[in-house]
């Protein structure tokens, strides 16, 4: 998997991304052009028009994100609107439209004090298998903001990763019936990773700033000794946020809405909630509880086992493509990531962890 080291102004960071990740950017554009049209009957011109509705909100949120996307477009030799579409792809794909529904699957897990002394986040990202060819690891060094190490799709400037202040984030897509023209999910993820503190990260996603629904599992270890970390699940929406899940050092989220507050304003459109998302959530919780009751230490190696779990396959934590569901819902684990925020360490497996291996990504 290609790793890009990006440094300088927002525009320069974007140009380096587009220039050195051009093949991955073009692959993403091809994937989403086919996907939008095949499942939503939205052509690329219409996708650009939808994406442009978010432009004003992004400019107000952080103009440097606009400059970085402009740089990606310049480096890759495509239009700015093409890159804007990629960064708005969840809003185009997941919210506010009728007809066949498709979404990322994902199982995200966090374990932190008081359960263990470290703070560890892990997740499988489930999506269309062909997007393995678009994956990039970005190491971003930017002025007046934390350094970031992030796994993303070519052309998308915010996704799953951690920063030099020990703050990390995972993503669970939520499929709903409403969206707004505010900040797209993936740029909200970048806003989190641009934050120095947990409080700053939360300020980037509250009060309806995010255009569509998702769950952001955010963790931080402030690095002042063992036991000085925390993880929180925030379901975000155009109508505000809510913190969900247990508070005893363990958190799990998959792809259905947990918050009664969020459900007051949005309908959960996940048609496979019970036979897929809910089972993955319960299974992950079961694995954590079994480790606790057995007295086994919970480490990065434990996360590897959990994320490789095949219970209820193909709809398992280690997700396989399910040939018995409609094509638009045939997702598989594209990558698996473990982030030890206490040690500032990232482990990454491309493809299904039950079939592959994790390698450490230097930060």
TrEMBL record:
<dbReference type="InterPro" id="IPR047801">
    <property type="entry name" value="Peptidase_C45"/>
</dbReference>
<dbReference type="Pfam" id="PF03417">
    <property type="entry name" value="AAT"/>
</dbReference>
<dbReference type="InterPro" id="IPR047794">
    <property type="entry name" value="C45_proenzyme-like"/>
</dbReference>
<feature type="domain" description="Peptidase C45 hydrolase">
    <location>
        <begin position="119"/>
        <end position="354"/>
    </location>
</feature>
<dbReference type="InterPro" id="IPR005079">
    <property type="entry name" value="Peptidase_C45_hydrolase"/>
</dbReference>
<protein>
    <recommendedName>
        <fullName>Peptidase C45 hydrolase domain-containing protein</fullName>
    </recommendedName>
</protein>
């Amino acid at each position: 998997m290609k790793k890009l080291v990006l440094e300088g102004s927002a525009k320069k960071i974007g140009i380096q991304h587009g220039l050195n990740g051009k093949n991955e950017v073009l692959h993403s554009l091809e994937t989403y052009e086919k996907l939008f049209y095949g499942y939503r009957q939205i052509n690329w011109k219409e996708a650009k028009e939808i994406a442009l509705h978010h432009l004003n909100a992004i400019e107000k949120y952080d103009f440097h994100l606009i400059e970085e996307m402009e740089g990606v477009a310049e480096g890759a030799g495509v239009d700015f609107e093409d890159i804007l579409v990629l960064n708005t792809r969840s809003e185009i794909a997941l919210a506010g439209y009728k007809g066949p529904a498709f979404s990322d699957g994902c199982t995200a897990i966090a374990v932190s004090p008081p359960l263990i002394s470290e703070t560890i986040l892990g997740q499988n990202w489930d999506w269309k298998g062909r997007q393995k060819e678009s994956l990039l690891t970005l190491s971003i060094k930017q002025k007046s903001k934390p350094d970031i190490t992030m796994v993303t799709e070519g052309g998308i400037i915010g996704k799953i990763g951690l920063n030099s202040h020990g703050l990390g984030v995972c993503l669970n897509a939520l499929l709903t019936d409403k969206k707004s023209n505010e900040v797209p999910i993936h740029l909200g993820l970048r806003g989190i990773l641009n934050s120095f503190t947990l409080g700053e990260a939360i300020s980037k996603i509250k009060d309806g700033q995010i255009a569509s629904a998702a769950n952001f599992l955010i963790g931080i270890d402030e690095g002042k000794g063992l036991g000085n970390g925390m993880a929180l699940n925030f379901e975000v929406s155009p109508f505000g946020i809510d913190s969900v899940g247990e508070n005893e050092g363990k958190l799990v989220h998959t792809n259905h809405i947990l918050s009664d507050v969020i459900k007051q304003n949005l309908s959960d459109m996940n048609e496979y909630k019970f036979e897929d998302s809910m089972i993955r959530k319960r299974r992950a919780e079961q694995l954590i509880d079994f480790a606790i009751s057995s007295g086994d230490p919970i480490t990065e190696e434990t996360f590897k086992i959990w994320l490789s779990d095949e219970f209820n396959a193909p709809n398992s934590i280690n997700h396989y493509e399910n040939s018995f569901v409609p094509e638009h819902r045939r997702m598989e684990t594209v990558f698996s990531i473990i982030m030890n925020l206490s040690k500032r360490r990232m482990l990454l497996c491309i493809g299904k962890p039950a079939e592959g291996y994790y390698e450490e990504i230097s930060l």
